């Protein structure tokens, strides 16, 4: 018989491997709804309010989305970022309430209800206003409920049981109350000036409701015959040439404008060919005319008109055109068209394009309006709310619409009439430029002078240093005549007079709204800092605030205007009754038959016009700080932070600023954070037509909300950000690694008890180094959270988990965890540090990965009444000699990387199968002490470390322990146990 060697013993049952039920596969889409349900049962938001009662409060005031349609990626990004900030502030021990809100009034909702009407062939104007408003309210309520569920599914924690809605009665009462504060302080007037108007929606629009798109328009050159020129009599009979891309404004022309310092010429045009060429169809109107044009623009004009040469017969400056007049091309129609058109000096006239002469239609341009007003020329209101010329207008009466491409085209009725009148010199449908459109209907908008209500930017506010009015004048400058409606001819009105150049009075008393707002901007923290320049320039250059809209669904401008004096009624008792009526019955009270009761016994309703316009929704949302922040947390309280997309510099940030500055003399916020837009994976704007819309609800349904939250936190959201399959894959990979870190810690801490804990001073140096690194990361994380830099926050957290822990600390200490005796000081120290790490990392992760952090916490500490989100920022142990330890182990880590790189070629060549089979020589000027050599061998995970002249690697001759797999000198045969493992197994 031959002796058969006994098989090597399998020691796997003696190794202390991590144990956990926490799954590697997240399954977030299925788990998260159950976690949400658990939070709802706990009443987690209300519990947090109780726990943080009396703490320093942090208020992030929610900017209201429209209650209209499912949420999109912009909504998701915005709400998740807000939630991360609110949760991080709560983690830092503050009382951080979050009250979500919705903008429920305005055109987006009204437009959707009208769409339903149009589908049924109904006209909104035929429906009683109370019924229409009720349908708008029901529509808004429906979408508030839908969006609320979608936002909650994102993991956004807030007061969902009591959100703020601009259509709540209390909110509507507050909004009208804020309006009446402006009225009482004299910061309100009704005037007729051009505003952006949507002929499709038949209402004025705010700049924030407008978007610009590239279009192709008709451009025309039109001749105005000069009939008088006192400073250049030789120009009588010549034709001043204007160029415009809005031919529809020619029927409303009232003047011409020139640049006083521009050099002009009068030329006679000629051709080197016959005028039979189709490209010169207007040539007959050009030939034999003396054309007055800016000299520098002559080549461009010649190209448009088609003439090939010209003879200059007069040359002069624009100032030579002072006091000249011309006749309108359609002067034969008489009346309005027979009046001479004066030449007016305009500083805005340039030679960038056109002819150097500008035709003036004060109804349809800001520059036109302001210049004509100086010379007593008023708007005539020829174009109605639908974009049609008034029926009684002598030219094209009852025709339109002025945004109809065919109507204003080169072959349309305007150009045809001008051509027949001999005034059309050139016309083509080929001018490419950017043009404003309604963001809701996508239709072109126009500038149109209509009677509107304004808050002046440059009038004295009469605000004292406490932000309250010091007097209560009523202003309605050059007010409306009796019975005038919004589409009736009206004299131009003006804002209150601009104060003297000295600006404000003592201690800002009497400052203008613009001055107060600019001071408030300077006193606010803007994140990123460049945002301050943007909103400053916007407020510096903005016109008076148009607060009126000609719609039905909104808060009415609840004013009574005296039919004789044109002044609005300013009686505190009447105003109080209005506010109380709105509080009891909402804004619908203004549409009931109770106006005489609101006026009371001192006034007769017959003497007053009841204003029917509603407020701009930006005024509504500009008041949210009053009925949300101040109403819930006390008068005078302002938000710590407003956070929205960068487009809100001209929207909510600005309307809130102006509303608060006009009534309180300060901004409603301490800081403002702006984020960019969510683009597709290629950096393109998402569009249904492009088919590149990334649906957040689909991502949540497939991958879970925490993946989306990981993406938001990982982006540089101060700029535009991309999202697509590759971007989400990166976020998923980062999430997976962090989840596995938690899974490892949960397994490694299985059965950990307080009796096992080791004091920091008794720990090995490696453990103390890791605690020092944790302390450093803790400081940086807190700084990032306080600065709202969650891109940096998330990167710090994931890098620490991946590089400091998984790739370094866990890698080195897995031998101790698996193979040391449970009572060993090193293993106990490691588990003690793991416990500290667990408590810290689960807290750090909670604001970003709110669902996963809860899952991790409950996996270790299951309790039906607890939540990770009740926890506060971790308190970490101090490490003595931390600086010295940190310096030493930073050097060891760098050397470890060098050693690992040196081993790698041997692994590829299969000289060694793992680093445990390698012996390493490192550069050292002195011998290594035994404990030092052992420490380095453990850190490098090699068999042996010796000093030498350079880093070299050889295969060890030591044999392999059958339990820990380390190659050690005391192991004489592969498979036998090392001294450490022999003791552990013997004591088991």
Task: Describe the protein.
The structure is a single chain. The protein has 988 residues and is an alpha/beta fold. It is 38% helix and 16% strand. It has 28 helices and 31 strands. The strands form 9 sheets. Strands 6, 7, 8, 9, 10, 11, 12, 13, 14 and 15 form a 10-stranded mixed β-sheet that branches. Strands 1-23-24-17 form a 4-stranded parallel β-sheet, with helices on both faces. β30 and β31 form a beta hairpin. The longest helix has 30 residues. The chain is elongated and about 120 Å long. The two termini are 37 Å apart.
Output the keywords.
10-stranded mixed beta sheet; 988 residues; 4-stranded parallel beta sheet; alpha/beta; 28 helices
Q: Give the terminus-to-terminus CA distance.
A: 37 Å
Number of strands: 31
> From the alpha-carbon coordinates, what is the Rg to the nearest angstrom?
38 Å
Q: Strand fraction band?
A: 15-25%
Q: Structural class given helices, strands, pairing? A: alpha/beta
For the residues shown, what is the average pLDDT?
89
- Quick one: biggest sheet? 10 strands, mixed
Measured as a percent range, the helix fraction is 25-40%
**Which blocks of ≥5 consecutive residues have pLDDT under 50?**
275-279, 464-509
Q: Tell the overall outline.
A: elongated
By DSSP (H or I, 4+ residues per run), the number of helices equals 28
